Amino acid sequence: MKFRLLGAVAADGADGELRLGPEKRRSLLALLLLRRNRAVSVAQLTEALWVDEPPANARTVVQSHISRLRALLAEAGAGRHGVGLTTAGDAYTLCLPEGLLDVEQFDALVAAARTEQRSTEVVGALEHALGLWRGPALTGTVPSAPLEAWRQTLEENRLAAVETLADHLQRLGEPARAAELLRAETVAHPLRESLVSALMLALFRAGRQSDAITWYHRTRESLADRLGVDPGRALNAAYERILRGEGAAAAAAGADHAAGPADTAGPAAAPVGVPGIPVQRGRLRPAAPVVPAPAPVLSSATPPAKAPDRDAAELPAVDLLPRPPRGFYGRGTELAALGDALSTGPDGAIALVTGPAGVGKTALALDWAHRHGHRFPDGVLFADLGGFSDRPDRELGDVLAEFLAALGTAHEDLPPTLAGRAALYRRATTGRRLLVLVDNARESEQVRPLLPAGADSAALVTSRHRMLGLVASELARPVPLSVLGPEESSALLARVLGPARIAAEPEAARELADLCDGLPLALRIAAAKAAADPRRGLAAVTEQLRHEQRRLNHLAAEEISVTSALRISCEQLPPTAARLFRALGLHPGPMVDAYTAAALADLEHPDAAQALERLAATHLVTETDAEQYTLHDLVWLYARQLAAETSRAEQRTARARLADQYLYAGLAAAQCAEPGSKPCCEPPAGSHRQRTVPEFTAIGDALHWLGAHRETLAEVIATATPERTWRLVLTQWPLILRRVRDGWVPQLQLALEAAVEAGDLDGESQVRALLGWVLVSNRRLHEAAACLAPAAELAARADNQVGRAIALINLAAVHSELADHAAAGAGLAQALEIALAADHPHTTALALLNLARHHLGTGRPRPALDHALHGLALSTGTHSDPRRVLLHTTAGEALSALGRHPEARARLGAALAEAEQVGHDEATAEVLRALARAEDAAGHGHAAAAHRLRADLLSPV
Fold first, then answer.
1. Coil, helix or strand at residue 11
2. pTM, whole model, 2 decimals?
3. 893 touches 934 (CB < 8 A)
4. What is the pLDDT of residue 280?
5. Gap between the Cα atoms of 354 and 351, Å rounded
6. Cα separation of 87 and 72, whole Å?
7. Is the pLDDT of residue 891 over 70?
8. Whole-angstrom distance, CA of residue 957 vs CA of residue 954
């Protein structure tokens, strides 16, 4: 048996992970584990389970969670492992042998690392220790003061281990690995100066001086802005060492003597301050001139050293293309679409390649241009506008100067203004057959001056934005680019690693492709990590990426990372869209609509819809249906990282708004799906109703909404307050009744616990009634009886007469299944009396239906027919009510039992018509079986066989 606190609070038994239940129970277990083998008082547990003032029944709630936790441990066989939860007076003790808790394992590995002399052993122990973390410690617990203090202590211990690990990696001559490790933590803890100084030195020793200095200035500004202080001694010392060029020497001097010569060899330090040669991302490059020199004229005497598969006579006069992309694979459909889009017509041709960050737009465009550049004999021009990078956008005047120079314009003939250069460019391209590739454009206005004027020319533009203006005004043809499928993803990995590596670990390769969400940038980074260390298999890289909280941190290689690509897209969003994107990180699923988006970000519905459109235009979300959007997995992870940076109070408020949005929408859907029924609950005090909630006009639409949001709603319920939890579950009751065998029991049990914790008698009664009915339908009769027994009395105490009647009806169903027909009849008679007194036709019809079924089952067709017809008379308002189907069916079966066969067939025919109108396959099958029995009774065997065959096709199981 194992217990985990370094990430989500969890416990594993022999049969897998235990279902710990709600947040408070996880919090209770966490505190008992943290204070294992010591007594923890009820007062201490209460302090940990509530952020604000605990309720009056706090002790009862604690005892209830203790009881349930003890039962869970017993079911998992915890006693066999020496685990026990004991009571001593007013306190509880969790007896836990050594080695079963990940916190203990982490501490032991860190302690062992301190005693090691060789850096290689230290690194191994610390990597093992840090591998135990699966996310922020104590995830899923109440953010109370005691648990927050423990969380901070555990996080501090982890960061200390990270810093020690990075130090020993540098001693082993691996500053790049140290920098990768430290950068991820520094982003999460930007004001921890010990992390920043260690990162600066690691970057410098890896030959990346400019990045190291950038981190210093960024941190200095953050300290001043947020805390109003200057950098401390350690940060300043690291900065000065870098400026003096002492970092590399210090690394060599401090190398681990026990590691041997191979371990201590480190990279040389990058040069500092070489005049006239700026340093960028750790590489030296000459400063570029403002206006490039004209391109040399190509002749047969001086063929260019590129594209050996082309004939020299076919080469264009001008070629500014960068080299072809390495390892490009697939995209046959998109390449064909580009070919169609760039088939020049009377006005030329423009293709617009759009897609999310890292999807491979530039690679696709360059591959096509290199394959088909020979179709443009006057030249191929290329410009990267830098619209999605950390550097400023390129000035259009400079780009036009470069193009004009390449086309033969002398420097002294260049007009000084942008308008003048654009006019000269139009004249220079008229009558020519050119291909112009404009990469990384942000908006249409950047592109228009660069479009060639020749009717035989073509332009190929790439952008993360849809650029609808270019489509509308210039007739650009969009070529959308999406992520790769599983087979293409595996093939791309094979291009980088070789087919043998993929064949050796096919399962790991498939999982790696899935974890990278088919994003080419992520796949290339993951493949690069595997290629850099051939001893480490794909399974090791896959294991790193399994941890959602760290996946994006691992998808980084030097200056290239998925996070930086997404960050740049987000930084260019307008404020409302940026606010919404951050809020989407709090949504429990990747599928959202404008209603849930408005609730999360506290926006008006039109503003949320407009912001979602903007996010879709930037390819941060994808529209899948009318007003339905989804986030790719890695984009969703990035949004969650941003959301995690907000305060816990903001996160709780946003989640409460989302829960309330689903509550009000669910109530509206339930009311539409069951017209005439009493609302299952009123929203709790303090709930927030958005100005706009979904409206439902048809039963089918309401049921579709409930089904489509079921999975997301389950995630919302898991983090909701008890007052909201049971209500959110109950709003699904029309769907539950139609899919009664569809795995609802765990969620209803959670709702029951929440109602008990909230102390809501009416809520407990209603949940018991619904849960009991589901248990009956799943043939768990004794559980159903125990669940339903108190329901009617609870409803009476809450003065809910309709709920009392329904509880009695459901309990009667248990008695009937257990063959206690007297108890069943008495309960149904009492339920009918209560429903009539409450003057509630919907519930009265339900009681009459069940009484009719009871009389039919006990051999009394005459009163069964009377009750069924009475129920039908009360439910004439709608012909899409499943209860009408059952009433018609019961009446038909009663008529058949009375020998009135033509009337029976007519009544059952009406039942079949209404069942098919409702679209309820299970009800339709039941009617068909009743028809078959009626036809058998009338002596029509062939008709009976046909009905049975149809019934079996509808429900073959």
1. strand
2. 0.59
3. yes
4. 29
5. 10
6. 16
7. yes
8. 9
CA distance 1 to 77: 9
Helix (H, G, I), strand (E, B) or coil at 291: coil
Q: Please determine, for residue 821, whether its predicted confidence score (pLDDT) is greater than 60.
A: yes
Write a three-state SS string for 560-618.
EEHHHHHHHHHHCCCHHHHHHHHHHCCCCCCEEEHHHHHHHHCCCHHHHHHHHHHHHHC
pLDDT band, very low/low/confident/very high, at 390 (cuts 50, 70, 90) = low
Query: What are the tokens at 705?
Result: 């909404």
Q: How far apart are CA 800 and CA 191, in angstroms?
A: 56
Computed over every residue of the chain, the mean pLDDT equals 83
Q: Using an 8 Å Cβ cutoff, are 816 and 849 in contact?
A: no
Structure tokens, 846: 């339900």
Other C-beta atoms within 10 Å of 460: how many? 27
Structure tokens at 359: 């999807």
Q: How many helices (H) and strands (E) does the chain have?
A: 46, 18
Least confident of 148-157, 214-223, 592-601: 214-223
Give the pLDDT band of residue 618 (cuts 50, 70, 90).
confident
Closest CA relative to residue 380, chosen from 353, 400, 407 = 407
The CB-side HSE value for 926 (13 A sphere, CA atoms) comes to 18
**Beta strand spans in 429-474 (E):** 435-439, 458-463
How, if at all, do strands 477-480 and 349-354 pair? parallel
- Token pair, residue 871, equals 């129920």
- Cα separation, 727 vs 471, in Å, equals 48
Q: Give me the helices (H) in 76-118, please.
A: 102-115
* Size of the chain in residues: 957
* Residue pointed to by tokens 């947040």: 23
The Cα–Cα gap between 581 and 584 comes to 5
Tokens of 873: 């008379």
